[in-house]
Automatic annotation (TrEMBL):
GO terms for molecular function: ATP binding; fructokinase activity. Residues 278-299 are annotated as: Disordered. Residues 1-328 form the Carbohydrate kinase PfkB domain. This is PfkB domain protein. Keywords: ATP-binding, Kinase, Nucleotide-binding, Transferase. It comes from Halorubrum aidingense JCM 13560.
């Protein structure tokens, strides 16, 4: 079983009830969220319980999040409780074209990771480290995440990074610093996740699709994964990748969607679980013998992982809430079996 460390924010998503606009909504329901937190819980439900470096406020919402992570069997070793209030993310109504999230709170509690608290001890046993880009918008979080990525690479860990660029969280005058840190983490990473839209705002690439993925690989990662929403995802890898040089595309699965919040995080958890464990490590995918027959460098493992990740994301949109809708490994396996039937 791979040892995985996830790092980044845990916060509360406020989901609106009925109304034409957020101003007209009469009530909200609160759900646990935060992209890295969703990935950590997604991995746990897929049978790969990670360590999780995160910060929780000392307020009742922090208690709620601590209880939620505990119920998912996430170890408490790297979970910090700090004074202050939890950041809230108000989710826009599905039918609006407004930005997806509006963040409320100073951000110091949720995003202000201490660079001196980087869990170096956890890196000694970790084979894979995943971190998210939102913490880069905070000065201390920026320094901490760059330090974590660099140390993880030095320890020989596979480093994956979700770009997740949120310009609305960047303080005035700090854009250049945030984008420089983002590029530094990309260069230190082995696997990078992104959407086309968010990268267009970073200057990392001006291309789309496979061209974007190849541009990211040219910066240092051996694998770049581009999520395409309802159109699935694509990935490109170089000869340095354990799964060999390849460009693969999976169109995704047609399902009835109730809430797309956290679908990208579900996808990320699915891909990491599959690649970190090895595509031929269980009965849900091709065996080692089958993979060898197809060749170690023909992208079979990456193609299989992309299908598994898209299935994980597809199941996650069939219920309300990013974290609460994350599927189990058994549910994903059954879904894929039904699709093959």
């Amino acid at each position: 079983m791979p040892e995985i460390l996830v790092a980044g924010e845990t916060l509360v998503d406020f989901l609106p009830g009925e109304g034409a606009t957020l101003r007209d909504v009469e009530g909200f329901s609160h759900r646990p969220g935060g992209a890295p937190a969703n990935v950590a819980v997604g991995l746990a439900r897929l049978g790969v319980v990670p360590a999780f470096w995160t910060r929780l406020g000392g307020d009742p919402f922090g208690d709620f999040l601590a209880e939620t992570l505990g119920s998912e069997l996430i170890p408490t070793t790297q979970i910090e409780r700090v004074d202050g209030n939890t950041t809230l993310a108000v989710v826009s109504l599905p039918e609006t074209d407004d930005r997806r999230f509006r963040f409320y709170g100073a951000g110091d509690v949720t995003f202000g990771f201490d660079p001196d608290a980087v869990p170096t001890d956890a890196l000694a046993s970790a084979s894979w480290v995943h971190l998210g880009g939102v913490a880069l918008t905070h000065p201390r979080g920026r320094e901490a995440m760059v330090e974590l990525a660099t140390r993880a690479a030095d320890h020989g860990c596979t480093v994956s990074f979700d770009v997740n660029y949120r310009p609305d969280l960047v303080a005035e005058g700090a854009t250049d610093d945030v984008l420089a840190a983002l590029r530094e983490v990309v260069e230190a990473s082995d696997v990078v996740f992104c959407s086309e839209e968010e990268v267009a705002e970073t200057g990392l690439s001006s291309r789309w699709g496979a061209g974007l993925a190849r541009d990211l690989c040219a910066l240092g990662p051996h694998t770049a994964v581009v999520t395409l929403g309802a159109d699935g995802a694509l990935a490109a890898s170089t000869a340095d990748a354990p799964w060999g040089e390849a460009t693969v595309r999976h169109e995704g699965f047609a399902v009835e969607s109730r809430d797309t919040t956290g679908a990208g995080d579900a996808f990320t958890a699915g891909l990491i679980a599959r690649l970190a464990a090895g595509s031929g490590s269980d009965a849900d995918g091709p065996s080692d013998e089958e993979s060898n027959e197809r060749g170690a460098s023909d992208g079979a493992a990456l193609d299989d992982a992309l299908a598994f990740a898209n299935a994980t994301a597809a199941l996650s949109v069939r219920d309300i809430g990013g974290m609460s809708a994350l599927p189990t490994r058994e549910a994903v396996a059954a879904f894929l079996d039904d699709d093959d039937a």
